[in-house]
Design goal:
Chain lengths: 170, 288
């Protein structure tokens, strides 16, 4: 079921629509998109058209922005100067604010909160490091510092909200 | 001796340490001091930025602030993702007073402050601009028979206005560097195609299809090794070849190396010593 768009998200989507207003639907974004090359059901041009038409529920619940690899090819090639890669980041951020975040993103933030980084050092790699003359591990950050920053920027509550939404949908 | 705060990132030390081993040996031989600091994730320009653009800037700024306060020299990265994130964050801090204020209001809570006084450099820029070809050439002892193809990866090239590394559509800077060092390079179709890692957690099958698009062209061009400055791209192209065979039937057998690993080889470090034998696809010559 489409969800009602809160007023601040509505305003942000209106601003984003303004930023793509020069789009004339030529499809250069789709032509250069690495994902569209193998998945023609993930069309960035159509997402922009929906944004321009004001179909906000459809835009916010779309998975097309989550299929963006952030490669910047669309931004680089757009003949109208639309910064579509940045629009995709904004759409992801707004979807997260409404509680939509993919599991992989929740996992990534959880890893950063636990170790400071996205990849945990396993026993096997620790051994491998010593074998090739490296210290067993590099000193990581104080994770309390990382937690304070994620709390301060609102990420922890965003992640909690997204977790609850995923559980409720399951 | 020239020094840098060494930003190793997450993937390299914890997943592909051979790149770290190669970088440390190469830089030591070239008279460069690498200083380690308790850095966190850069953070990831696709995932973390997708969650919250502000949090991405703030976590990135914490790393730069740490280097400003406790490091030695500019920041040197060996990963495209780290390069893009840190250079972009620094750009925001230097060019946008409002963003700088927002970032510092968060950093204040952990007693840090970013000024934007350091440069963020890729190891490729350090090699070319700070050390110089003539100096590197003096240390080349073991010429290669193999011809390499370059996969630049997106985040060393784009956004081009900020990163200023090379032309994103027809990059040639790495080829020029390697050719000058006596390494044979070759062009191939789909050179500027993204590796697809950004959506690995969303839909791995689609990522696999994107990787195949490039690898079959590398194979067709008769390239021996695929070489990249990015650990995420390396990991993807190296580990996906078995799955591509299973899913699509393509018989690919293309060793994938980081540029640091390639340089370590031509500078005479044995493949085993830097851990190249831990790559999935191996070249027979790496047994030594």
């Amino acid at each position: 079921m489409p969800e009602k768009i809160p007023v601040e998200i509505n305003q942000a989507l209106n601003e984003l629509a303004k930023s793509v207003r020069l789009c004339y639907q030529c499809g250069t974004c789709a032509a250069g998109c690495p994902v569209f090359r193998v998945r023609n059901d993930k069309n960035p041009r159509l997402l922009v058209e929906r944004l321009l038409l004001g179909n906000q529920e459809e835009v916010i619940q779309s998975d097309v922005m989550w299929y963006c690899c952030n490669c910047y090819t669309c931004t680089e090639h757009c003949p109208q100067g639309v910064d579509l890669a940045h629009v995709m980041v904004n759409l992801k951020n707004l979807a997260v604010q409404m509680g939509y975040a993919p599991q992989s993103l929740i996992d990534e933030i959880t890893a950063i909160l636990t170790t400071g980084g996205t990849a945990e050092l396993t026993g096997a790699i620790r051994k491998r490091r010593e074998k090739i003359g490296l210290p067993a591990e590099l000193k990581g950050p104080d994770v309390k510092e990382i937690e304070t920053l994620l709390q301060s920027t609102g990420v922890i509550s965003l992640i909690d909200q997204a977790k609850k939404k995923l559980e409720a949908d399951a | 001796m020239k020094s840098y705060s060494f930003f190793a990132g997450c993937t390299i030390p914890n997943v592909i340490p051979s790149i770290e081993a190669a970088t440390r040996r190469v830089m030591e031989k070239l008279g460069i001091e690498l200083v380690d600091l308790p850095f966190g994730c850069c953070p990831d320009p696709t995932g973390v930025q997708g969650l919250s653009h502000d949090a991405w800037l703030v976590l990135g700024a914490r790393n730069i602030a740490l280097a400003e306060q406790e490091g030695k020299g500019d920041i040197m990265t060996i990963c495209n993702g780290c390069f893009e994130t840190l250079k972009t964050v620094n750009h925001h801090v230097r060019e946008d007073p409002k963003e700088r204020e927002m970032i510092n209001s968060h950093l204040q809570k952990v007693n840090r402050k970013i000024e934007g006084k350091l440069d963020v450099r890729s190891f490729l820029e350090v090699l070319e601009e700070d050390i110089g070809l003539e100096e590197i050439k003096k240390h080349i002892t073991t010429p290669l028979d193999q011809t390499v193809g370059i996969h630049y990866g997106c985040h060393i090239l784009k956004p081009k206005e900020i990163l200023k590394y090379d032309n994103p559509d027809r990059p040639e800077r790495i080829e020029r560097l390697l050719e000058a060092l006596g390494i044979k390079t070759k062009q191939y179709v789909n050179k500027s195609l993204c590796c697809g890692a950004g959506i690995l957690g969303i839909d791995g099958q689609t990522t696999l299809g994107i990787r195949r698009e490039k690898l079959v062209e590398v194979e067709k061009a008769g390239i021996d090794w695929l070489v990249t400055p990015c650990p995420t791209c390396l990991r993807g192209y190296d580990s996906s070849q078995m799955m591509i065979k299973k899913e699509f039937g393509d018989n690919l057998n293309i060793p994938v190396l980081h540029i640091s690993e390639l340089l370590a080889l031509v500078m005479g470090f044995p493949a085993n010593e830097i851990g190249l034998n831990f790559h999935r696809v191996k070249d027979p010559s790496w047994k030594k």
